[in-house]
Amino acid sequence: MISNRMGEVLARLDLHEDRPTDVLGAHCTEALGVDHLVVSLALDEEFGASGRGMTFSGADFMAARERSAPTPRTAAGEQLWSTSRTGSAVDDLQFTLGEGPEHDTLRTCRAVLENDLDAVDPDRWPTLLPALAELPVRALFCLPLCLGGITPGVLTVLRETPGPMSGQQMEDALALAEAITFHLLTGGADPLDAWIGPQCSGELHRAVVHQAAGMVSVQLDLPLDDALARIRAHAYRCGEPVTRTADDIVNRRIRLSHDPPARDLLLGPPPDDDPSGTAPPAGGPPADDPPQTPRE
Amino acid sequence: MTREQQLSAVFVEVADSLIDDFDLVEFLQQVCAHCVDLLDVSAAGILLVGHDQALKTVAASDENTHLLELFVLEVNEGPCLECFRTSEPRINIDLCDPRATTAWPAFAANARKSGFRTSHVVPLRRRERAIGALSFFHTGTQPLTPADASLAQALADIATIALLQQRDLDDEQTEKAQLQRALISRIVIEQAKGILAERWQTTPEAAFQALRAHARNRQLRLTECSRQIIDQTFDTNLIPPPST
C-alpha cells in the first residue's frame, strides 16, 4: 500500500490538470521523506545525429583524453526535471563523466540502491564517486521508469543522510516512478510540454550545453558529439559543472582550441606572464590531476 | 504425450510468450497444431480481423492448399464470419446438413470436397468483442464433447492473450518513440541555435528568433529546419541573419 500522502500527490498528478513539476515539486520530497529528486530521460543512440554518442563511460574517460582516442559510447540520459540544485548537480556530474547509477539503471532496467555512498566500491564509478563526495548526498536510489519491456527514463531519489529507504518509502517511490512513467508515455504529441513548457519557450536543464555544442562544432569544425565531448572534457578538467563551461562558451568567455584541452583559451586579457594567450583557465588543474568538485 | 502433458506443454509455451521475445505467427501455428492433437480434429486455423475489418488467415495446422482455400472462403461466407460477428461459438456443424448448405453454399460444398464432414468455430474474444476466430474441421462426424468445447475456447483465449500482449508491446514502443522524438527535437533545436549563433556571431536567443521567423515564413517545421542545419543539408545563408 502506498502512503496517504503519496496517494494524494499521485492522484493530483493523474488529473493532468496542474503541471507535473508543480505537483511533484511542492509535495513530493516531503511525502517521500527524502531530500532531492531528479527525473532523467533515456536518449537512444539510434535516434540520429543529436542522440549519437552523448556520453562515453567514465572508466575510459581518462584513458580517452587524447582527442584521437576512440570514445566509447554508452546510453545517455537527459535531465528533465529536478527538485533542487543538488539534484541537478548529481545528474550533471553523471552526464559529464559518462558513468554512474543512472547509466547503470538505463542500461540494465534495474534499480540501483546505494544506502551509503561512502561504502560503495571506489572502482564502481571511479570518476563520479570522488566528485559526489563533495556534494551533500549520502544515499542514492535510482529507479527505472519502466513499463513492460521499455525503460524511457530513470527517477533518482537522493538523501543527505546514509541509510536504506524504509519499506513504505520504497513502495511510495516505486509508485511515483510508475506514475511518472505513465504521465510521460501518455503525454500526447509532445509529452515534454507539461514538464518544461512548449517547444519555443521551454528549455531543458542542459539547453545551454547543447547550444555550446553547436557553437563549438562550428568553431572547431567537429561533429556535434565530438564537440560535446570536448565541452564535457573541459568541465571535467576544470572541475566545474558542465552547464557553467557551456555558459562560458555561449557567452564567449572561453573558446575551446583545436588542440587538446590544455591549450583552451581563456578569452579576455591574457595573464601578464603569458603573452601568448594560451594559458589554461585560471585555477584549472593540469590535465593529469584528479577531477575537482563542481562548484554549486 | 498424454493429454495432461500436452496441456502443460501449451501452458509453458504461453508463459514463454509473455516474458520473452517470441514469434507470434509461430506461436499461433503451434496453438493450431495443439488443437489438432488435443481435440482430435483434422485441421485447425486462426483467422484475425485486420485494420480493414476483414478476416485474414494467420495460422493453420498444416499448409494443405485445400484447407487454406477453405479459410479464404470463410472470409466471405461461413461459420467463421458468423462467429466473428456474433462472438458466439458454433460447435458440431454438420457440413451436409441443409442448414449449412443453404447458409454457406460455396463454403459447405468446398469443405465437403476437401473431405471434411464437421466444422467447429470459437471466437477469439476481447471482452465482448471478437478479434478473430479459431476454426476446426473434421473428416468424421463424431461431435465435440462439452469438455472439448470448453478446451477449444480456452485455447482460443490463450491465443488472444498472446496477441494482445504483442499489441501492447507495440503500443509501448510507439509511445516511447514519441517521447524520444520530443526529447531529440528539443536538443536538436538547441544545437541549431548554437550553430547559427556562431556563424552569425550573435547570441543563441537572437539566432533562434531569426530561425523561428524563417521557419514560420516558409511554413517549415522548426525541428526539421534545425535537423537540416545540423546535417548541413540546409543553406543557412537563406535565413536572414538578425540585424544586430
From TrEMBL, chain A:
Extract the GO molecular function terms from the UniProt entry. RNA binding
Q: Which residues form the ANTAR domain?
A: 172-250
Q: Which SUPFAM superfamilies match?
A: GAF domain-like
Ranges for region Disordered: 257-296
Pro residues bias: where? 282-296
Q: What is this protein called?
A: ANTAR domain-containing protein
UniProtKB/TrEMBL annotation, chain B:
Originating organism: Streptomyces finlayi
What range(s) does the ANTAR domain occupy?
169-230
Tell me yes or no: is Lipid metabolism among this UniProt entry's keywords: no
Select a single GO molecular function from the record's annotations and give it. kinase activity
Q: Which UniProt keywords apply?
A: Kinase, Transcription, Transcription regulation, Transferase
Q: Which Gene3D superfamilies match?
A: 3.30.450.40, Winged helix-like DNA-binding domain superfamily/Winged helix DNA-binding domain (1.10.10.10)
Protein name per Swiss-Prot or TrEMBL = Transcriptional regulator
What's the superkingdom here?
A: Bacteria
**UniProt xrefs under SUPFAM superfamilies:** CheY-like (SSF52172), GAF domain-like (SSF55781)
Pfam hit, one = GAF_2
Which PROSITE patterns does the entry mention? ANTAR
